[in-house]
Amino acid sequence: MSRRRVLEAAGASTVVALAGCNAGGDGESGGGGSLDPVRERAEVSVDEIQEGGTLRFGLGAGIDSFDPSYSTSAPSGNVHGLVYEGLITQDAAGTVYPWLARTWERMDVREVEDGAYEPYMVPAETDDDGNLVADDQIIIRNPEAGEVLTVNEAPDAVADGTFGIQYRAELHEGVTFHNGEEMTAENVARSYEVLENSSISAQTFDSFLYAEAVDDYTVDIYGQEPDAEADSQLPTTVYPMEHIEEYPDRGADPRNDLTPIGTGPFEFESYEAEQRARFSTFDDYWLDDLGLDALEWWDGPDGFPTSPVVDEVTVAIVTDDATRAAALNNGEIDLTYGLTSDTYGEYRSAEDYRLSVTNAGAYNFLQYPVTVSPWDDERVRRGVNQLLPRAQIAENIYNGYRNPAYTPLPELAADEGSADYDALVEELRPQTEQDTEAATELLQEAVDDLGVETPIEATIETNTSDDRVREAELIAQVMSNTEFFDVSVETFEFTTFVQRILGPEYYQQGNIVLIGLSGTFNPGSFYDAVNSIDNFGQCCNFQRVDTPDLNEIATEARFSVDAVEDPQFRGEQYDRVWRGLIEQAPNSYTVFGTNVSALSTDYVGHNTYTFSSGILPYGLHDPTDQQVAYLDRET
Amino acid sequence: MSLRRFIAVRVAATVPILFGVSVFTFALVHLTPGDPIDQMVALNPQISAAEEAAIRARYGLDGPVWQQYLTWMGNVLEGDLGTVISVDQPVLPYIMARLPETVALGLFGWAIALLIAIPAGIYAAVNKDTLGDDLSRVFALSGISLPNFWLGLMLILVFALWLDLWPVLAPDRPLLSPAMLWYLVLPGVTIGTASSATLMRVMRSSMAEELNKEYVTAARAKGLPERTVVLKHVLRNSLISVTTIAAFLTASIFAGAVVVEQVFAWPGLGRAFVGAIVGREVDLIMAITLFTGVTIILANLLADIVYALLDPRIRYDT
């Protein structure tokens, strides 16, 4: 079924429709049939679209870097998305589409034996903490041998056929950067150099191995292992040579007198420290020149814009939520996000404003001290899991702007993360929905077997965010209402809290942690960070959670030839992981988040992206969802 | 002692004070749990412990506190104020980019404080124990009691949202422009109110005291108009104590800027300071603290000099 985001019939300029079922891309480039996470998608008629104007976007935090290779923060991501582009893009449901790449295809996938890269490794020095270090970007470490594989040795490994996965991108011809340079395969292959040894290099070099230009418009990109997420994980931002060869280690940033240069629809104009950044339409935007038919997957209506229809974007940095809301109410900004949930009620009922809500990847979770009695008994944890009033938390504390987490996997990642998501929810919900009777039975059995004195005293620790504190208090109250627990809540300022729970001895203290994290379209992101022992002492395994059997399955579900080639197999593996997590319950996922934009009705057609880093660029223009928004005012 | 020597002695005396402030602040920041790297890795599962250690080492956050302090001090003496880790920018340009904004806001706040405090103080003193004096007391009490953030938000609510006379956000204009001057009224009033209240009470009591002195009686007996007595003779003497207080209020103006800049989305040092504390940006906290310390010391020195100029009987004495 083809998507029809844009109504070809002339009529009301904005039609609100319940999110429905959409088909995906071309089949070659990711899954399809995903549910649209946008709750009530605003749709616009092509005939009604007005061109021009300046969109004023209120950002609740500073831009820590204008260069995507130096920041993954959501606020900065909104700016990156205006200026820079990559080989692929993902719609709101996570489906991958070729973007700067005309085609994006998997060419090869192969098993990689343990030690396969060792022949290519070189000796490395060790720092005071015993970590292997090298001047060049390290790709793989072998601590036992004191050797590493760096970007210098990777080409040799690939030349010998040692790699896990190979993708090929055939690029659109005629794509130009803002500085007039034409994009070629060399730009793509060498753009990875920008990421080398940056503070976020780990996010690329944990899967990327090597990229090489085959000809002017064809590039091959290799991954270290067979990786079912490679189609979205391997591509990077594409930079011009000026950036790759001349920009120093701090990246493209006006604070360093360096202009961000990309292929995106907007050019950087100016930046006033911590106040505002300005962007204007790029006149030679490639999609304007090539037309939407250059996108092989495009099946939208004639007349759909080839680029954002506003002329300029001003990003105002307003960190105080109340001031940002006041600026929106005063007509000084058109769009913002990240306001407190108790503000939303006002906008929901206001005539001149609208809320755009999208189910997102953020989740709150309780992490139990699994190595400390009686929390080392899974029956105790499962008992608490069944006490949690998830629906009440979502509705009463978050005003409906959260979804109860009846499974550890949100709908957002359901396509890749389950063989049959509805069946999974049906199966797991009875074990996660509040059921005091079942919980009492479990807890009684556990305390009798363990000979534990009740009430068990416990503390839920969380950070000083109003909503989260209220969530912790509600959970504590529900637990204390049973004969089994006497629970208190302790709150900490965020950085203090983080340092506390990342401490190497924290897991022995017997406290329950309540914190939030954001997953991605990758189903593994809802497992690894909080359950894998590899993440103990870092984000976000604070309690030495160790579920080796599930680790093995989760690894198989992403890093195996079968997972790459057979989505059904992958989904089945993940289903086993989710079942295991409910069974062992080292964490209780409480609610999944939403992204909420508040906007003036002058800005027509806006829909909120699944991740807050994409709210601004996605809302302006995204052909994957036939998304476009325009300003309906005299400017 | 001569004025020149007096200044030299006072400037020399600032060195141990600033050293003390730096040690105290550095210790305080390090007593607070966490640093920017903790924030960086906090919610980022892809940063491993090894990478965290490497990043920490890169920014010199891996040694003992005393060693970090000595390194920092050594760098400062060479003119390197360190790095704002979250944006990977050197501290000095980061501060210099924000300094004009805070100076403008501070001066504006000052001007508003003086414009309110001096006439109101004179009026209250001249009309002592009348309804006007009582009202000035109520104003002073309110000015001191009202939290800056609340007053700022109320001003935004009334004058920006209800009456639509002011914008909420700073206009897209140069700092030195009529539009910006107009915009500065609300944050200026917010920041100046508490200071004006204090100044006004000092002005009133100082003036009231002067009005009871014999030279005032003598001046009146000579038949000088009351206006001349008050504005020419009494005001000058009253300003001596106001000058001293005004210097102290420089500190409160900066303290006010920390909150007011946040409420009015004003990109100055105060807002940077809040961000630095939240992010545990030790170099930035140290730099802004020292800068503020120097400013307050200079303000006090200036006050002493003005004090002496206003009252020739005062000798430079340490």
Structure description:
The complex is a heterodimer of chains A (635) and B (318). Chain A is an alpha+beta fold. In chain A, 28% of the residues lie in helices and 24% in strands. Chain B is built from 13 helices and two strands; from the N terminus they run H-H-H-H-E-E-H-H-H-H-H-H-H-H-H. In chain B, helix 1 (3-31) runs antiparallel to helix 13, helix 7 (148-162) packs across helix 11 and helix 12 (269-279) packs antiparallel against helix 13. In chain B, strand 1 and strand 2 (89-90) form a beta hairpin. Chain B starts with a helix and ends in an 8-residue tail after the last helix. Chain B is mainly alpha-helical. Chain B is globular. In chain B, strands 1-2 form a two-stranded antiparallel ribbon. The interface between A and B is large, with 58 and 54 residues.
Short description:
The complex is a heterodimer of chains A (635) and B (318). With 635 residues, chain A is α+β, with helices and mostly antiparallel strands. Chain A is built from 21 helices and 28 strands.
Write the layout of secondary structure elements.
The complex is a heterodimer of chains A (635) and B (318).
Chain A: E1 14-18, E2 40-44, E3 54-59, H1 74-83, E4 88-90, E5 96-98, E6 101-109, E7 122-123, E8 125-126, E9 132-133, E10 138-142, E11 147-150, H2 154-159, E12 165-171, H3 185-195, H4 202-205, E13 208-215, E14 218-223, H5 230-233, H6 241-246, E15 266-272, E16 276-281, H7 286-290, E17 312-317, H8 321-329, E18 335-337, H9 341-349, E19 353-367, H10 378-387, H11 390-397, E20 402-404, H12 414-417, H13 421-432, H14 436-450, E21 456-463, H15 466-480, E22 485-492, H16 494-501, E23 512-518, H17 528-531, H18 548-558, H19 561-565, H20 567-584, E24 587-600, E25 603-604, H21 615-620, E26 621-622, E27 627-628, E28 630-631
Parallel strand pairs in A: 3-17, 3-18, 21-22, 21-23
Antiparallel strand pairs in A: 1-2, 4-5, 6-12, 7-11, 8-9, 10-11, 12-14, 13-14, 15-16, 16-17, 18-24, 19-23, 19-24, 20-24, 25-28, 26-27
Helix pairs in contact in A: 10-14, 18-20
Chain B: H1 3-31, H2 36-42, H3 49-58, H4 65-77, E1 83-84, E2 89-90, H5 91-126, H6 131-145, H7 148-162, H8 178-183, H9 185-211, H10 214-221, H11 226-263, H12 269-279, H13 282-310
Antiparallel strand pairs in B: 1-2
Helix pairs in contact in B: 1-13, 5-6, 5-9, 5-11, 6-9, 7-9, 7-11, 9-11, 11-12, 11-13, 12-13
